[in-house]
Amino acid sequence: MTLFADPPPFAAWQHRTARHGFEVVHVTAHDGGWRITSCTTAVEDGEPWVVDAVIDVDATWTTRQARVRGLSPAGERTVVLDADGSGGWRVDGEPDPRLDGCLDVDLESSAVTNALPVHRMRLAVGEGGPAPAAYVRAVGLGVERLEQTYTRVPHDGPGRRFAYTAPAFDTACDLEVDAAGLVLEYPGIAVRRY
């Protein structure tokens, strides 16, 4: 079973290739779990946007709530996702059965949300499995189900490595994480700067 160190109070990623921007995250202990406050500003396909989020996870790193605000030339929007910790979700107060079975939120705008399933699944080398997520788009904050998998693969370095797939985006890559489970580099998306 993989255990991680407590996350640092701050982390930052430079977003590149798919978009150009920066994400800064603040992590604090909260109600026996963690509160992750994230802000990403970027330009993608010639369009600027900002996404602010506050994500609460319990002691097992299962998402319990995500409050997300987005601002782009298309306007400003806020969405609130509430999770019961057993796979049931409400989006802006309304049940959303499309998300049944998801235990994590995944923000398109964020590199930090990959830490949620990595922590929660506690995979040993060679173990893996599905980690469907409530996926929030960066522009417009549309919410959908994202099928994805994580498999822990051997790694000689000080961190840990996970093979990640998200078939909807034709994505398959290795994510290297540090001792706290935070992604060091997400190929084509972001690289850790702090």
Write the layout of secondary structure elements.
Layout (H helix, E strand, L loop, with lengths): L9 E6 L4 E11 L2 E12 L2 E11 L5 E10 L2 E9 L5 E3 L2 E2 L8 E4 L7 H7 L6 E3 L2 E4 L6 E4 L2 E5 L6 E7 L4 E7 L5 E4 L3 E3 L2
Parallel strand pairs: 9-11
Antiparallel strand pairs: 1-2, 1-17, 2-3, 3-4, 4-5, 5-6, 6-7, 7-8, 10-13, 11-12, 13-14, 14-15, 15-16, 16-17
Describe the structure.
The protein has a 14-stranded antiparallel β-sheet, with helices on one face. Strands 9-11-12 form a three-stranded mixed β-sheet, with no helix packed on it. By secondary structure, the protein is mainly beta. The radius of gyration is 15 Å and the shape is globular. It has one domain (10-192). The chain has one helix at 115-121, and strands at 10-15, 20-30, 33-44, 47-57, 63-72, 75-83, 89-91, 94-95, 104-107, 128-130, 133-136, 143-146, 149-153, 160-166, 171-177, 183-186, 190-192. The two termini are 27 Å apart.
Keywords:
194 residues; mainly beta; 3-stranded mixed β-sheet; 17 strands; 54% strand; globular
Brief characterization of the structure:
With 194 residues, the protein is mainly beta. The chain has one helix spanning 115-121; strands spanning 10-15, 20-30, 33-44, 47-57, 63-72, 75-83, 89-91, 94-95, 104-107, 128-130, 133-136, 143-146, 149-153, 160-166, 171-177, 183-186, 190-192.
Rg from Cα: 15 Å
Strand order of the largest sheet: 8-7-6-5-4-3-2-1-17-16-15-14-13-10
| Number of helices in the DSSP assignment | 1
Mean of residue pLDDT values:
96
Strand element count: 17
Poorly predicted runs of 5 or more residues: none
- Which bin fits the share of residues in helices? under 10%
Largest sheet: 14 strands, antiparallel
The topology string of helices and strands comes to EEEEEEEEEHEEEEEEEE
| Structural domain tally | 1
